[in-house]
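INTERNAL AUDIT FORM
Audit reference: QA-55
Scope: verify that the stored structure record matches its stored sequence.
Auditor: D.O.
Record contents follow.
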Amino acid sequence: MDKPQLVRDWRGRPYLVGQSDQDLINRSRSWMFWLPWAAMLAIAPLQYGYAASASALITLHRGSALTALTPLAVWIVCQATAAVPAIHLVRSGRLGVRPALYAGAALSGTALPAVALAGGSTAVLAGYALLGGIGGGLVYGVCTEVVARWYPERPATRVGFVTGAFAYGAAPLAVVAGVAPGLIQPAFAVSGVVALAVIGVAARFVRFPPRHWWPPEIDPRAHALDRLILRRTPPAVRQFSTGQALRTGTLSALVAILVCAGAVSIFDVIALATMGGVVPWVALTLLITLNGAGRACAMLASEVFGRRRALSVVLALLGVGQLLLAAGAAERSAALIVIAGVVAGLGGGAFYPLIACLVREFFGEERTAEIHGVVYSSKAVAGVLGVAPAAVAVTSQTHAGAFLFMALLALLSAAVSRGLRTPGRPATLPV
């Protein structure tokens, strides 16, 4: 093993070189990618799985749509607010990766069987929404940070791929809800056992590399001077503190985008799950699968065409998907609904990793976790904004009108994304 040494690039960014993944963990760093991916796959039923099972859960608990969907809104609030301190505590070293994931495994493994308990929203609200939200936030926050640390040369693409599992991992539960809704209780119970086992295994092996670690097979200084990276994904003008970032209009714009697009994303799953029939179920399965797979595709495209351009395209796709869903619901067109599910799915989740990348490229890397935490915590507002109209649409059977409202939100977020600029760069310079 070579002696580790700290080098700096032309921007002054430090890199710790000289230690390979084999030196540090006695195995390939791919373990630090696939284990977090599996953990994210295991917690997917907590959000998209619950939303996809909305119709079956309404019947199961013999309540109104609002009663069945309120726990989902509370879960999203808890998950979004728990992920932020989890990342901060782990980054600062005050919370270890292993205890954080063990806690996430225990909480998630308890929350999923709680959904299977029929006849009481109190048990579901306490067990699923509160415990599951905190557990999901812990797993989400730790896994994304672990992958970003082990793949510093391409953190955005790798994290985008891993977070995609958080969406398409719910596809099996969506299939059960559509094909055999009577089996939704044992499906959630089995999901709880799987989550406990998979996240527990991840906790046993996952760990952080040393601070500023860089893979020895890649020259960090040459990487920092790559012309394509500098042109398509330019670095921040300077390192912003959280307070400085909050005073920029750019951070407010990113929050607005995530709130609007996040609300549309969760609404689509609930709306399709409660429309009834085989066609909406097929569209729902496609939407969830592409919601996850589209994240990896969008990140690859953004490295060629630029983050902001990719974000605008993704949000435009999400808006067009809503218009197609509204037309399909109004005309009861099977073809339109399925096509709309594909289009909305491609735009329904990719904005999350793209926004995370833009935070790093707008405000610098030193406070990325804190600043992105401010943006990501707005998902709590998005959850309420997405679940409330869904409950109204389910109760009144006005899906077409609700989809039009969501189209307005998605297209508004796309319009806001077009005006994003790098903070600190003179307005006379091109975007």
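Auditor finding: record pair retrieved intact. The CA atoms of residues 9 and 221 lie 5 Å apart.
Action required: none
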